[in-house]
Amino acid sequence: MRKIKGTVVKVNSDLYKVDIGNDTIDCKAKGLLKFKKSNIITGDVVEVKGDVIEKVYERKNEFIRPSIANIDQLVIVVATTNPSPDMELLDKQLIMAEKKNVMPLICINKIDLSNEYEELVKTYEKIGYQVVTTDAKNGIGVEKLASFLNNKITAFTGNSGVGKSALTNNLFNDTVSEEGEVSEKSERGKHTTKFVELYKIAPGTYIADTPGFSTYEIQDISCTELDKLFIEFIPFIGNCEFRGCSHIKERKCAVRQAAEDRKIDFGRYARYCKFYENIKENKKW
Known about the structure:
Layout: E1 3-12, E2 15-19, E3 24-29, E4 45-49, E5 52-56, E6 62-63, E7 68-69, E8 73-79, H1 87-99, E9 103-109, H2 118-127, E10 130-133, H3 142-146, E11 153-157, H4 164-172, E12 197-202, E13 205-209, H5 223-229, H6 234-237, H7 254-260, H8 266-284
Parallel strand pairs: 3-5, 8-9, 8-11, 9-10, 11-13
Antiparallel strand pairs: 1-2, 1-4, 2-3, 4-5, 6-7, 12-13
């Protein structure tokens, strides 16, 4: 029986769905793999013999929340309203995309509910990020979004209730995941997606529907590397008076001056300062 290379598209306990090109098969892990430190997760490239996974190839990247590996692109979905944009969450997701060397794409959804999103688009496009605007319920902007997915494994992420499942369903013109409703009282989305699952659009092209979440902690990032993950800071970092400048309180800090001069978005700079202090505090503990 020959060995076949495939991609794990869904994990449910000890059962794994693996796409082997012309078919998707249910597999279990070889005994020895169960004792390894890293579990098999969605997105893993594996070697299968029959219905047994015998080898897991090295990952090029890995996310803990959502739990997924080997993604090429992270579509960060933000709603114009209901729930309101969570700027800290958006920036944390961008930081992690930069850290993992994953191409980020910002998708602003629910443009039918509010027209107060142009400033958000301008801010992040000025930084250099690609931004698309959509109304998933009515299919507006979805075709443009789809054009960014070709030959990539793309994960959709964002706060609950922003419309990730609606976008996924619209891209397939089918219901591939249960659409959630947003609580009017709390504006927090109800958790509906239970598993991270890859859906195949075409050979080599997958999208992932991921569980909603309300927090996104910055992991494996040090204070000294945080500034490089705010990509608009990079042109100014070398002009600070002190080497290793934290850009918080130092004199003649080029980054802080750029923020005060509005060459850098001041809101982004303020969130950088908050993240820096949080990381510093967590390291103490």
